[in-house]
Design a protein that fits this description.
Number of strands: 11
Oligomer: single chain
CATH architecture of the largest domain: 3-Layer(aba) Sandwich
Largest sheet: 5 strands, mixed
Strand content: 15-25%
CATH class of the largest domain: Alpha Beta
């Protein structure tokens, strides 16, 4: 699987670099073409994209939807399913329309396109079941009390197996994951060495959901816009092989902090200085070759 969150087509330039909306789609299509080349027929491509407004107006840009149409029409990707990542902790934005003029609500949802090369990419919902609600637990425990097996007027056939426990409920395509990282090992070590952490990190639970859902242990995970390498760290925890590409060497160097468990302050400083000299540092399966 390839899973990534590229710089979005925002109006304001960010320190990590982002393309203007007018050229963004063509720019990203050059990458997705290569992703199509390397992903297996049973593999998946998960693309997280934030929304944006048009310049100078409280009107939404359609860039993420235009990208979806072009990627499918021109590159033969299939839309396996659309997901929406809801970040309840997201600050109100854009300031002009939400905070000042108060004519729009805050933008708190990203579109996440799950794309595939075939109609049947590898996937297993059993790996991402969510806890049952208290109401559902009662229904399973005393099913005969709460419903009668029969075909409903709207066509849904409720059978006797409806009250059977499957270990959890099937999740929806609305992923509610707050992005509230504030005291992780990565950020603590950045602060220790006086470094600024990557400003646009997605929460670990986002790649974790798709890695569990769409891959198996020892499968290969690739993030082509890795940033601080959240994807690689999650893949490591889930016993997947992984590759991470990042253009900015400062972000890449600092990303090693995610993997330095039980290291002293002196050791962390020595490792970072080694990386500043453009040398390779390896720890278990993690390595940073600067070439």
């Amino acid at each position: 699987m390839v899973i990534t969150s590229p710089p979005f087509a925002l109006l304001r330039q960010k320190e990590y670099g982002n393309k203007d909306q007018a050229e963004y789609i063509d720019w990203l299509l050059a990458f997705t073409k290569e992703v199509f080349r390397v992903v297996k027929d049973t593999g998946s491509f998960v693309l997280d994209l934030g929304g944006a407004y048009k310049k100078g107006a409280p009107v939404r840009s359609l860039y993420n939807y235009r990208l979806l149409i072009r990627i499918c029409d021109e590159q033969r990707w299939k839309l396996a399913e659309e997901f929406f990542w809801y970040n309840p902790a997201k600050l109100p934005s854009p300031i002009e329309w939400v905070n000042k003029r108060k004519i729009r609500v805050k933008d708190a949802v990203n579109t996440v396109w799950w794309l595939s090369k075939s109609d049947f990419p590898k996937a297993n919902v059993k790996n991402v079941l969510v806890p049952y609600s208290e109401r559902m637990k009662k229904l399973i425990e005393h099913s005969s009390k709460y419903y009668t097996p029969k075909k409903r007027p709207y066509g849904h056939d409720i059978s006797e197996s409806f009250g059977k426990s499957n270990g959890g409920a099937i999740p929806s395509n609305l992923l509610q994951i707050p992005n509230t990282e504030s005291n992780s090992q990565y950020l603590r070590f950045c602060k220790l060495l006086g470094l600024k952490g990557h400003p646009a990190r997605f929460p670990a639970k986002l790649p974790e959901f798709f890695i569990k859902f769409l891959t198996e242990p020892q499968d290969i995970i690739l993030d082509i816009f890795a940033g601080s390498n959240t994807t690689g760290w999650v893949a490591e925890q889930l016993n997947r092989k992984w590759l991470s590409f990042e253009l900015n060497k400062d972000y890449l160097r600092a990303s090693v902090f995610r993997f330095l468990d039980n290291k002293s302050e002196k050791e962390i400083g020595n490792i970072y200085n080694l990386l500043l000299e453009n040398k390779t540092y390896s720890i278990n399966t993690y390595s940073l070759p600067f070439k």
